[in-house]
Amino acid sequence: MTQTQPVSSTTPAVPRGFLLPCLRCGELGALTLRLDSMTEDDAIHCPECDADYSLSDAQETVAAWSALLAWVQLAPPLREKAQFGSWPRPAA
After folding, report:
1. 46 in helix, strand or coil?
2. Backbone angles phi, psi at 37, to 5 degrees
3. Nearest-angstrom CA–CA distance, 7 and 25
4. Alpha-carbon distance 64 to 66, whole Å?
5. What are the beta bridge partners of residue 28?
6. CA separation, residue 1 to residues 4, 6, 34, 84 (Å)
7. CB within 8 A of 21, min separation 6: which ones?
8. What are the tens digits of pLDDT across the range 36-78?
9. Where are the alpha helices (DSSP H) in 17-77?
10. Which of 65, 62, 68, 25 is nearest to 47 (CA)?
11. Residue 57, SS3 per DSSP
12. How far is CA 23 from the centre of its chain?
């Protein structure tokens, strides 16, 4: 007779919420929202570094990243095998 392994009653933890990094310390998934003060300067809190942010702070960060990502998407691709310093030089 073959021995069977017991079935585990625990399931792996599923992350809940938004796994966003703190604007100051970068800790992933630590941010909390104060639902009672969404219009205040401390609507977003990081317990890791004790930083407080307003919603406008987060919106400014998203806007800055959006501008960067839009620029990167519009940039022409580099030639294959292009390396630093290997750009063609004008003929002398």
Report:
1. strand
2. -140, 45
3. 40
4. 5
5. 21
6. 9, 15, 58, 66
7. 27, 28
8. 877 888 899 999 999 999 999 999 999 999 999 999 999 887 7
9. 55-74
10. 25
11. helix
12. 9
